[in-house]
Write a structure and sequence with these properties.
Blueprint lengths: L5 H66 L2 H12 L25 H8 L4
């Protein structure tokens, strides 16, 4: 088998080095693209979060504007005072509504459950 000349060996070594360099460049570029893709994903997620936060803030703004409109009238101010601070006008009495008292008796069982309970089945 004939040996390759020194010139051919140097050329082949140069080709291998060039191929290795190009593979390294491709890997570096792939790594950079991966990093940019990750940053884009994070940015997209942050945009979605901010959109959701903006929607919540718009709802709160609508509620606040509604409350401001209510408080701009005398009737609304009076209702808010009565509701939040429990005040009454002069001459008004306080009415306390008591929930109905629940019976502490056991509910009456149907006849068949009482019959089975007699024998210890129910």
């Amino acid at each position: 088998m004939p040996r390759k000349s020194k010139k051919q060996q140097v050329r082949q070594l140069g080709e291998y080095l060039l191929a290795a360099f190009l593979v390294l460049v491709v890997l570096v570029l792939a790594w950079a693209v991966w990093g940019i893709a990750q940053k884009e994903r994070i940015a997209r997620s942050a945009v979605d979060d901010r959109k959701a936060e903006l929607a919540v803030l718009k709802e709160r703004k609508a509620v606040f504007e509604e409350n401001m409109a209510e408080l701009s009238t005398d009737r609304g101010q009076e209702a808010t005072l009565r509701q939040n601070h429990g005040v009454a006008k002069a001459g008004e009495d306080v009415i306390i509504v008591v929930p109905p008292k629940e019976d502490e008796l056991e509910p009456r069982l149907p006849w068949y459950k009482r019959f089975l309970g007699f024998f210890g089945i129910w």
